[in-house]
């Protein structure tokens, strides 16, 4: 899911990590759940700059914190995303994800957050009908 880079290490996707406090996620997919059904998926890749001192001091499970926070953020704000003509744009989403990760970590784990890729795939685009929980 993610790669935490060392000094000058080359990650598997061809992007060089500049320091040990950089985390580059692989594709992360979150189902867009709204109005009782899964209408699509939010797919993203992110680059996080982490507080190396906090990691050394506490040793938090960074990958799990990031995955939990990203999924929770999109679950909670499904109707506000820009794919549904809501008020959030890419900059607001990046700021919101950074805040959600720091809140989940219980401190300022992420010092900078960038979005490398952000896509929305509707259920029909991935060859699945809308999955409804309403009966």
Automatic annotation (TrEMBL):
Protein name per Swiss-Prot or TrEMBL: Uncharacterized protein
Superkingdom field: Bacteria
